[in-house]
């Protein structure tokens, strides 16, 4: 039975969050296709993980028998996140764009999970694990748009998730999510609605495909 690690990081509830709503579509399709599977859920907005500390960082490069009490305590929490990450057969991450990049809570989770010589480096322990990122944003930062150069979500996550952690990455990008709330973007509402519909469709298809593949 496959295990899905589902991580949300939006500060808003699903009714007001595109990343949560699309991730929910993915998860429902996954569960329908794979009802006997396991879903591990972390809501980083409701229950943020600690930001990386000096003790948690240095403990990752020291022999556990030599850990100070502070290192041992800090690394225990980090190890829980790492083992949870390694147990997953697939990952689902909600990554809304805040001020051109990911939420700090998601960055904290990544900092804890990325451990050189174990989850990161030449032979990462979760190499090849499929990860689907719902990278929502209020505007559009696609190639050819005026704000293309401000796209620090997909570029950053591709570097960390693929180049560092060795995961098999797929993005789903609901964009222009502020069109319905911002009068200046009113003419973009049809494009937003099309993007939203496509994101939910792609999420359901991706979830079903992954669930079928991992259940085989």
Write out the strand line-up for the largest beta sheet, numbering strands in chain order: 2-1-3-4-5
Can you write the helix and strand succession as a string?
EHEHHEHEHEH
Structural class: alpha/beta
Give the C-alpha Rg: 18 Å
Percent of residues in beta strands: 5-15%
Which stretches are poorly predicted, pLDDT < 50 over at least 5 residues?
Answer: none
Helix content: 40-55%
What does this structure look like?
It is a single chain. The chain is an alpha/beta fold and 216 residues long. The protein has six helices and five strands; from the N terminus they run E-H-E-H-H-E-H-E-H-E-H. The protein has helices at 18-33, 54-59, 69-87, 104-113, 154-164, 189-215; strands at residues 3-8, 38-43, 90-94, 130-134, 168-172. The protein has a five-stranded parallel sheet, with helices on both faces. The longest helix is centred in the C-terminal third of the chain and has 27 residues, at 189-215. This is FMN dependent NADH:quinone oxidoreductase. Residues 3-173 form the Flavodoxin-like fold domain. InterPro entries: Flavodoxin_fold, Flavoprotein-like_sf, FMN-dep_NADH:Q_OxRdtase_AzoR1, NADH:quinone_OxRdtase_FMN_depd. Homodimer.
Quick overview of this protein structure:
With 216 residues, the protein is α/β, with parallel strands linked by helices. The protein has 6 helices and 5 strands; from the N terminus they run βαβααβαβαβα. It has helices at residues 18-33, 54-59, 69-87, 104-113, 154-164, 189-215; strands spanning 3-8, 38-43, 90-94, 130-134, 168-172.
């Amino acid at each position: 039975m496959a295990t899905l690690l589902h991580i949300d990081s939006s500060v808003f509830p699903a009714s007001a969050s595109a990343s949560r709503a699309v991730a929910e579509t993915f998860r429902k399709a996954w569960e329908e296709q794979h009802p006997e599977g396991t879903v591990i859920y972390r809501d980083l907005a409701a229950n943020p993980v600690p930001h990386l500390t000096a003790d948690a960082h240095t403990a990752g490069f020291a022999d556990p028998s030599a850990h100070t009490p502070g290192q041992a305590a800090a690394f225990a929490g980090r190890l829980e996140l790492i083992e949870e990450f390694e147990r997953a057969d697939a990952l689902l991450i909600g990554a809304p764009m805040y001020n051109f990049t990911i939420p700090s809570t998601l960055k904290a989770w990544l900092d804890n999970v990325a451990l050189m010589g174990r989850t990161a480096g030449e032979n990462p322990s979760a190499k090849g694990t499929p990860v689907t990122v719902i990278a929502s944003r209020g505007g559009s930062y696609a190639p050819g748009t005026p704000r293309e150069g401000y796209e620090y979500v997909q570029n950053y996550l591709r570097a960390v998730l693929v180049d560092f952690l060795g995961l098999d990455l797929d993005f789903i990008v609901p964009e222009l999510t502020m069109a319905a709330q911002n009068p200046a973007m009113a003419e973009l509402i049809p494009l937003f609605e099309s993007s939203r519909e496509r994101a939910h469709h792609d999420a359901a298809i991706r979830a079903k495909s992954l669930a079928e593949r991992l259940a085989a």
